[in-house]
Amino acid sequence: MNTQIVKLHSANSTLILQTKPAIEILYWGEKLQTDFDVNVLSILKRAVPHGRLDTNIPLTLSPEHGRGLFSSPGLEGHRNGKDWSPVFHFKSLTEEQNALLVVCEDTIAGLQLHIELRLDPQTDVLQLRHSLTNLKPETYQVDRFAVTLPLPERADELLAFHGRWVREFQPHRLNLKHGGYHQENRRGRTSHENFPAFIQGTTGFKEQQGEVWGFHFGWSGNHRLRSDVKTDGRRFMQAEALYFAGEIQLAEQESISTPWLYATYSQDGLNGMSHAFHQFVRQQILHFPTNKPRPVHLNTWEGIYFQHDPDYIMQMATQAAELGVERFIIDDGWFKGRDHDRAALGDWYLDEKKYPNGLEPVVTHVRSLGMEFGIWVEPEMINPDSDLYRAHPDWLLAVPEYNQPTGRNQYALDLQNPDVFAYLLERLDDLLNRYDISYIKWDMNREIVQPGHEGKAAITGQTHAVYRLFDELRTRHPRVEIESCASGGGRIDFEVLKRTHRFWTSDNNDALERQQIQRGMSYFFPPEVMGSHIGSAHCHCTARSHSIQFRGLTALFGHMGVELDPVKESAEEQAGFAHFIRLHKQLRPLLHTGKVVRIDHHDSAMMINGVVAEDKTEAVFLLSQLAMPTYSLSGSLRLPELLADKNYCLTVLEKPARFDGGVMKIQPEWLTQEETVLSGEWLAKVGIALPVMDPESAVLFQLKML
């Protein structure tokens, strides 16, 4: 093997890496179908301009100021002020099954760098992680430690995501001709505000066209992402866990690893990128305990909040089962003293006043109805008004002698304290041993201020401790599924998904808001992990009201549930819930295995998305009218991904109750016909006429190969 040049190929991409004079990616993009002589790579040797250093300076996977690169370095640290500008030299390379381990060393600074790089042969997802080891007796302080990937000059547009509570995954775009983009999260969890990902591509890239390079940083703590355009025109991105001052200290032979960076190249726009990430998640990240359909949920939170009456909850369960619910989850309020959100977090014992006969009758009733039973917990948190806090005020994740602000009336526990970790593990283990619980909704409802352990900064250690708690609990209870919730979408990333099975996408069940939130999440995560519930007609977060049809169709394209009290709902609403639950179950095998497709449309007032079976035998598409149409006609819709030489039967599954009149006299004929037969070629090249719809309404149709 030529250790100076390494070639990795996947289904649709190629990566070429050189090890000397430094570790540098020479090419990462569309798959090269023919082999080449490595000597031809000399044609890529860069010019050396006047006014600069006298030699070519490589842009490595860990850029070094000591090598003459003046952009953001991959490592910043020192040993009592020394060894602050390392230069790593290639030592060895191991290649196995499309994965590389490159070892580099700086013998002067006494540091060793391990670079792990994997290109998944099937999904095209590239994984990158660095590890740093201190080789000297003196402690080495790490201030920054990042992974770096180069981008081509044509990748001059960036799509990133901002957000907040109840409004996650909001996209924004930037043109990157000069300067760069910088994103930081210091909130102690993945965060609603700065999802750790962005996408870069050729100018004007869209859902269905353009070259794109997508990046997701798998880390549930603080992070920093950046994309820079150097003054010589070269481009690169960096991702790193964000360390507080003095947080990372390496003794001799101690190591620190970056979180994994996940990246992929697509020549087919954002849809191609999403398909790569979705397939990678399904094959490499997700680990469901059993191979079964994702159960439809009912979560009690918006139905009863803290008002727990076992007899009434059993009525709710009975009604839920009649609607077709398959998993019944009791949310916050079941443990002692928890009558509101100002007390009792940390006291993980059943409230015997609310449940005088114990929880067993409720669990038994739920199970007798054929449903699984789930329960809500928030283990990382503690209320000042709790028995646990009164007994152990020193258990906080905090800096002594400071008074940090509460968030949702609570503090965070220091999980790096062995006593705290042991207490939480014992309480959760007892809960799962005592009751027949199949599911945990694991919440985390505050941001972290001054995360201190023994007086030192410790958010990185806290994040790893949370992972260990997940891991230990799953080892003891491998058949229990866990949902990651953090005030909705505050902890959504690949690393926590290795330990969980579902995300609560947002606390906002408003169907109109959910359309964009769920689309934003769909760029990186497949539908089966995206919690999407039908809420009550009057949304608790926005005070808006929507029809059951719009709410049901919006919740259809995820892991469906309902978030309400079914006992109090009208017969009409109950019939609607049951209808859309049946429809979801009918489509669930396709929705949770197929290829997600988002359609570019000239009018942003309409959003179009669908799922196409991997074998292209069937598909389902949703037309969502978000606002008044911009034009009096909506134009035509062309549908990709089907087989051109096959015929498909188009069937309308759902359309608004008020469809004629309103903004349109006559709708396209296919909407009123029992079925319409069209070829895959016609659907892709010519298409069908779109309806003109009222705002906040939707049409669902299915295509099946004949």
Q: Could you give a short description of this structure?
A:
This protein is α+β, with helices and mostly antiparallel strands and 706 residues long. Helix 4 links the parallel strand 21 (327-330) and strand 22 (372-377). The model has no long low-confidence stretch (mean pLDDT 96).
Kindly describe this structure.
This protein is α+β, with helices and mostly antiparallel strands and 706 residues long. A hairpin with a 5-residue loop joins strand 7 and strand 8 (125-134). The radius of gyration is 27 Å and the shape is globular. It starts with a strand and ends with a strand. The model has no long low-confidence stretch (mean pLDDT 96).
